[in-house]
Amino acid sequence: MKNKYLDIIFTNHAINRLHNRGISQSDAWETFKHPDRVIEGKIAGSKKFYKDLKGKKIEVVAQPNPKGEWVVFSCWSKEKGYKEKSYKNPTNEHYNFLERFISNLLGKLLFKRKN
Hints:
By secondary structure, the chain is α+β, with helices and mostly antiparallel strands. It has a single domain (about 5-110), classed as YaeB-like fold (2-Layer Sandwich), CATH 3.30.2310. Helices cover about 30% and strands about 30% of the residues. It is built from 3 helices and 6 strands, in the order E-E-H-H-E-E-E-E-H. A hairpin with a 6-residue loop joins strand 3 and strand 4 (about 45-55). The chain is globular. Mean pLDDT is about 80; it is low at about 85-95.
């Protein structure tokens, strides 16, 4: 897999996730280009793209970089009909802190603004 696929860029993290989760770059691209649904991501400016494809629900998280190119930084899939159990406990402050810390750090590292 390459970092540049057609008109989007994949981070090394996203490529690892695709490989580990058995998702092709073409399926991730299809989800990004022709989503069934799009919502705002946790990092400012990011979006989550969802698509039912080949018996799976694929989710792609991407954000435009300062040049306006879309960068995919994570992907995953679930079998259709899968009902997600809530593994996140909103009262678990350590988990929420860690989640916010990592999201903010990724945002700062991937999308630095020039002063």
